[in-house]
Amino acid sequence: MRYNVVPLITLTVLSLFALFIALGTFTIALTGIDAVLWFYFILSLRTVKKLELSAKIFPSRVFTDDEVTCEVSLTNKSKFTLSSVEIQDFSSDGYIVSGDRNTFGSIDPGKSLSLKYSLKYRVRGEHTFYRVKIKSESSLRLFSIERYFDTERKVLVFPKILPIEKFKTILIEPVDGRKTDFKILEDSSHIVGVHEYSDEPFQRIHWKISAHTDQLMVKEYEYTGSSNVRIYIDYNLPREIYARNVWASMRKDYEEYASMAASGIVKYLFERGMPITLKVLGKEIIEITPQMVRDYIPYLDALAIAKGTDEPEDGLLLQNQLISDMYSMSKTTTVVIISMYLTDGIIPILLTAKSRAARLIVFVMPYGFRMPYDKKYDTYAILPGEIKRLRDQSIVLIENNVMIHVMMDNESVDEVIKRYERSLGTL
Asked: How far separated are the first and last CA of the chain, in Å rounded?
């Protein structure tokens, strides 16, 4: 707690000086007023010390652009009224959608002054609320008293879950308790949904729904087999990048896109019974295994909390993580990689990983992607030479069942996945 009494001291000195040089009714009255003001200051100081503050936020776990409500209540536990009080909440970096972080008023003994506002967050991560400032001052601003309350309040913001229509994995291991046909590992008696037709057998078309929607819709059957899925999300800036200052500023936006795409893939696969191992590469490695989860929320926790770095150490590099995990892959493993920037130097490692895994799918998204609800637009983005060479070699890699997709900012993830599904049909 701190206070400012410089104006009051100045007034008191001037009053005593006036009393010294001209003793009279006015100067005596002025000195008496000074004494009352000092008494009022002492009472205000004691009252501010007896103030009690409660602060809460709800909910404490939200998705980006979901609303968070913040409430602050200041209670006067003394027997003296504070006539002028300001509450200022130093909240985190969200943007206000209703209410205000500041409020003014007076507090009678035993009464409270409350502050309530709502905000939203545009980016994922753990957002911290800072101190709450209380300020009381006299009506003539001759003194002011400030007190700060430290409140532990945090909001964990999950990335928005990108809707994924379809994402195939190699299905080899039967799921317990499900009847299975080893050839296709699908239960044709249990339809779980439909999706738009895309070069699939005509016997899978759902004719009744197609008649209502005026477009061909295909049945989705429940899987009776599962694939072990390993997902690598690289939030870090690769060492091979030139113009690092430029790409470092773009990396923060990439983190948001990568986390959205990853959350959509995780949710899609988890709801279909796939055991998922998620490894997020940031300032530290966060790994979530199937044994650690009962739902997909722990995966979202990892995607939300992790933060990338512009100068990753050797142990945080994607290629080194793939090498160290190589013996954890098998012919029932589907490997999914999301990265901002890859060069053709990683191709030998990808081919080695594919030789051990059933399928390898790589998404390279230097400029993010188009959201599914946005219209297609022309892009003027220029790919760096290293990524162009990687894209040019992707045709050869597809022949080896290594799917590398260099995404442009005007492409949606579903478009890329559909292109990937069509490429499978041509192999």
From this structure: 72
Examine residue 67 and state whether it is found in any structural domain, yes or no.
yes
- Predicted local distance difference test score (pLDDT) of residue 387: 81
What integer pLDDT is reported at residue 20 of this predicted model?
87
Six-digit token string for 33: 């007023």
In a domain, 163, yes or no: no
**Burial of 66 from C-beta contacts in 10 A (0-12 / 13-18 / 19+):** middle
**Neighbour tally for 124: CB within 10 Å:** 25
Per the CB < 8 A criterion, the answer to whether 238 and 281 are in contact is no
Same domain, 251 and 137: no
321-359 pLDDT, tens per residue?
Answer: 999 999 889 888 899 999 998 877 788 898 889 888 888
Please say whether the beta carbons of 168 and 73 come within 8 A. no
For 325-338, give the DSSP string: TGGG--TTEEEEEE
Q: What residues pair up with 196 in beta bridges, in sequence order?
A: 217
- Tokens, residue 253: 């936006």
Q: Is residue 212 part of a domain?
A: no
pTM attached to this predicted model: 0.77
